[in-house]
Amino acid sequence: MNQTGKFYPGAGEVRYLTSFLAGAVLLPVAGGVWAAEPQGDSGAATTTVTTTTATASGGDGSRLDTITVEGNRLYDMLPSEQTGGYGVDAATVGTKTPAALRDIPQSISVVTREAIEDQNFDTLDQMAKRTPGVRVLSNDDGRSSIYSRGYEYDEYSIDGLPSPMSSITGSVPTLSAVDRVEIMRGPSGLFNSTSEMGGIVNLVRKRPTYDFQGHVTGRYGSWDQRYIETDLSGPINADGSVRGRLVIDNSDTNGFVDHNDNERNNFYGALDADLDEDTTLSLAFLRQSKDINVNNGLPANRDGSLREYRRSKLFGADWNSFTSQSNDWIAELTHRFDNGAYGRLAGRYSNRNADYNYAFGAGGPAAGVDENGNATLMGLGGKADEQSVALDASYSQPFEALGNTSEFVVGTDYKRFETEQEQGRYGALPGFRGINVSDFSPASVPYTDVLGDARAGVAGTNNYSDERNTLEEYGLYSKLTFRPVQDLALIAGGRISNYRQHANVDELDDSTSDSRSDSSRFTPYGGLVYDLDDHHSLYASYSQVFKPQTSTDANNELLKPRKGEQYEAGVKGSYFNGDLNARLTAFRMYDKNRGAATASGDTNDAVALGKTRIQGAELELTGSITDQWDVIAGYTYMDTEIERESTTQGDGLFLLMPRNMINLWTQYGFEGGALDGFRIGGGVTAMDGFSSSSDVEAPGYAVVDAMVGYDFTQSLSGQLNFNNILDKKYYERVGGLNTFNMYGAPASVVASLRYDF
């Protein structure tokens, strides 16, 4: 092991096996070794290296020279798959470089690799359902909408590099290539100025290892759920300076809803190369694909009341389909300077495409189920293509001032998001107006190419559009964390952004096109953290963000961007060397300049007048209480006041956010005695009632889950996950009278085996 904490293995058979498996593979940045520090130290703690020098006469090594090098110990934080448990004491989301959770004056949650595997999370939306403070409007896995504080996460980052995320394109990511997920709540305009107010989701990739490791995982469960994953990692050359990792997985399920098959395939390959002792080049490629028989929910009664259906019922066609593929190429170059500074150049290119064609309940005057039990089926078809580029260059450096260690970060970034979405629909599929919902069979619906018919202007089709949007942004940012005294951190930052947006909409009978640019938009950020003692800190922050809008006014000009701001304060706790973290948070947000449709209801004839105030409180406890006992627990309260209404659709989303939510999951592993090797776990997800803008109301619910596992050997382990063990029947989402009224999954069980090499 060298002074950076890196281990270089000797020659052996394992290395050559890894070389064979990973020779053509790319890999992410390796995590170094993070030296344990007592809690209460700043995230920019200095590292002290002691060296031994011999005297010229004796050579007995009795004299010691101490060299102090300023450097952030967290630059080399270990991946969560290596540290284990549910807790980490640092994150990179919203900070650009790693910072202790106590030193970030905003709400941060980190879900580790072990927490992901204990609960069998395959996709980000599955995980988000069990994450405190996060709300999921469920759809098919990988196509749901994820919200925090009333706002949807419309992009996600990989190692700090963003790209768009939406349910309509199915771009919600899978987690097999992820070491941990970092979630920041609230505006984050310092590093993501044109993002949504909900915050940032950052996926930290699995890191390569300096010695060989690998595992194979297989699962089988209710509704013919199948999952297989292979993960191999290790050195490629003799000294370990080049390393590779390969992750391949496949999942498939018939789903608890009829004809709701869902198959996902993922490939992740990466390569790390140490160009010298202080410089690492990382390259990675991630491909994700989905093939889903879509379930878009059930219709409600026309008076807004929810109907009783069997939970397996599909109100659609057995040919409902959604296919998508996304590709991500990532490159990163990092360097450590002799003065303790850290430099990073990184880029991500993503392209995605999706095709969908499905039937579901009709809207408009035919929406809902009438008094005779009849409803109408509509059709939706479309294609989506996205390309995005994200580039970032940053430099961070700890420095000593007034006897304490402070730190600054400066950098520049660039992003370009291009989206094209073509879509058409049938208001009512031919022959399926006013059909009885009880007698309806999905197999009775003849195949219809909805988009093709809409392009051709076939009678009965409407709302055909081909919309293209481009958002391009350049930014310069800087942040200073200054400690005038050891117990107080003052944080100030700012960003200057230059953005350009272009929107073009083609319809069969009309088209609009407009561009908007702003060359001098400033986004401020400020916060403070005061350490009460070695375990507790008070914090407060102000953050801001702006969001360009795609709606146009009566003159076909894009509306001015929305402006969001947040005030947040609370107390954070960190225990057991950072393995267990707690926070109590209060926040208030304002969303100004929201677009509002005029009386015509046309989004291309809008005015900017919306204003919303959101406030609430959160309590969270996450991490490892002991080496055997892990916990994730949280309570969320949210109150929304719409001061000036914008669109019914936009404001109606706040109605879907419960006022109170509770999340709890805990697991305990036994050591010694008759139960040695056993692990047990359980949890509850609960929320009070919610409703939609169509006055469809759903009662609150609580769902109980459980897990039991056993380690047969050091290499072989098994696990049983029991979901909704009380078989609670409930609606986890409501929407319009026609669709998005979704039952939660019934009781199920999944068995899994894992073998580690």
Helix content: under 10%
Largest sheet: 22 strands, antiparallel, barrel
What Rg, in angstroms, do the CA atoms define? 27 Å
Query: Which topology of the largest domain does CATH recognise?
Result: Maltoporin, Chain A
Shape designation: globular
Specify the CATH class of the largest domain: Mainly Beta
Domain module count: 2
The N- and C-terminal alpha carbons lie at a distance of 22 Å
- What class would the helix/strand composition place it in? mainly beta
What does it look like?
This protein is about 5% helix and about 55% strand. It is mainly β and about 750 residues long. The protein folds into two domains: about 80-205, Beta Complex (Ferric Hydroxamate Uptake Protein, Chain A, domain 1); about 205-755, TonB-dependent receptor, beta-barrel domain (Maltoporin, Chain A, Beta Barrel). The strands form eight sheets. It has a 22-stranded antiparallel barrel. The longest helix is centred in the first third of the chain and has 10 residues, at about 15-20.
Topology:
Elements: H1 13-22, E1 47-53, E2 63-69, H2 80-83, E3 90-91, E4 99-100, E5 107-111, H3 113-118, H4 124-128, E6 134-137, E7 145-148, E8 151-152, E9 155-158, E10 161-164, E11 178-185, E12 199-205, E13 213-221, E14 225-235, E15 242-253, E16 262-276, E17 279-292, E18 321-336, E19 342-361, E20 374-375, E21 377-401, E22 404-426, E23 435-436, H5 450-455, E24 461-485, E25 488-507, E26 511-531, E27 536-547, E28 562-575, E29 580-597, E30 606-624, E31 629-644, H6 648-655, E32 660-669, E33 678-687, E34 690-691, E35 697-698, E36 701-711, E37 716-723, E38 731-733, E39 742-743, E40 748-756
Parallel strand pairs: 9-12
Antiparallel strand pairs: 1-2, 3-4, 5-11, 6-7, 7-8, 9-10, 11-12, 13-14, 13-40, 14-15, 15-16, 16-17, 17-18, 18-19, 19-21, 20-23, 21-22, 22-24, 24-25, 25-26, 26-27, 27-28, 28-29, 29-30, 30-31, 31-32, 32-33, 33-36, 34-35, 36-37, 37-40, 38-39
